[in-house]
């Protein structure tokens, strides 16, 4: 079963393995299979589910809402996000303006089949909207009871600090950031993590397996497996490209004996690695089949001693991306349309 951690400086506990449906529901996986996988997550003790209105252009939220129908709402933590364009993609169908936030949250609530969202996240930083406007809209939703906590995704250390101050002034809690983080992609460690730890903000990390590369299934000098994420433009193929070179793939193969020595599969080792960071509240995992979850949830509660962490660093020496400048390149300088 899955362990639980507090989300930021709040009293909310979340499952440290959190189910995310970015590249599966509404696109890659048929609805019946998606629902079975969500039920497998519940059976494994996962209570926290993360989605976004933009995933499959709102279809992912609809599928998740259907999959969770009939469950005790008080026993679940449902997360979603706002920023990217949905619908007909008109001039106000994107960003973090008061109008787009208001319209988006009502759509999300309807699709998810709930009257409140546990964590509502700014999917990116919006350079075209005053932060005061964004957090004023978030505060209204919290005070109306439609949202319990506020989070963000891929914000820089400076943006987190400014957002945290505004949230405090408005009487709401900014409790989380959702960045990419894995043993191969560590750009948050230099600035974002220390700032977040100071402010009481947790990380909910996506792609802990580096888009599947840390599973070890991609081999140097070999074509990518048929049907894998690297071949599917709908399921993050663009994100995995940065890792698909022989230097990285050779280094990843060096992790296999480390995983074996600890009685772990490669995916379990990758997820356990991110969970060793005390600022990480949860690792987001997806699945296209229920049996995939049976493997990954076993990473919960695994303790990797200092010797193992050092061995992982040595195995990946030279291929890890850890420049904090990478955190400044994620949010677009103009709204996505």
Explained architecture:
The protein is of the alpha/beta class and 337 residues long. It has a single domain (4-328), classed as NADP-dependent oxidoreductase domain (TIM Barrel, Alpha-Beta Barrel), CATH 3.20.20. Helix content is 34%, strand content 13%. The chain has helices at 31-43, 59-67, 98-112, 131-143, 157-169, 192-199, 237-240, 246-253, 256-261, 266-275, 290-296, 306-315; strands at 4-6, 13-15, 17-20, 48-50, 77-82, 117-122, 147-152, 174-177, 202-205, 280-285. α2 links the parallel β4 (48-50) and β5 (77-82). The N and C termini lie far apart (41 Å).
Task: Give a short synopsis of this structure.
The chain is of the alpha/beta class and 337 residues long.
How many β-strand runs?
10
Q: Give the overall pLDDT as a whole number.
A: 93
C-alpha end-to-end distance? 41 Å
Question: What letter string, H or E per element, gives the SSE order?
Answer: EEEHEHEHEHEHEHEHHHHEHH
Strand portion: 5-15%
For the sheet with most strands, the description reads: 8 strands, parallel, barrel
- Give the name of the CATH superfamily: NADP-dependent oxidoreductase domain
CATH top level assignment: Alpha Beta
Please count the helical segments: 12
- What form results from the Cα inertia axes? globular
CATH T-level fold name: TIM Barrel
Read across the widest sheet, the strand sequence of neighbours is 3-4-5-6-7-8-9-10
Q: Using the CA coordinates, give the radius of gyration.
A: 19 Å
The helix content, as a percent range, equals 25-40%
InterPro entries: AKR (IPR020471), K_chnl_volt-dep_bsu_KCNAB-rel (IPR005399), NAD(P)_OxRdtase_dom_sf (IPR036812), NADP_OxRdtase_dom (IPR023210)
Pfam family, one: Aldo_ket_red
GO molecular function, one term: oxidoreductase activity
Keywords: NADP, Oxidoreductase
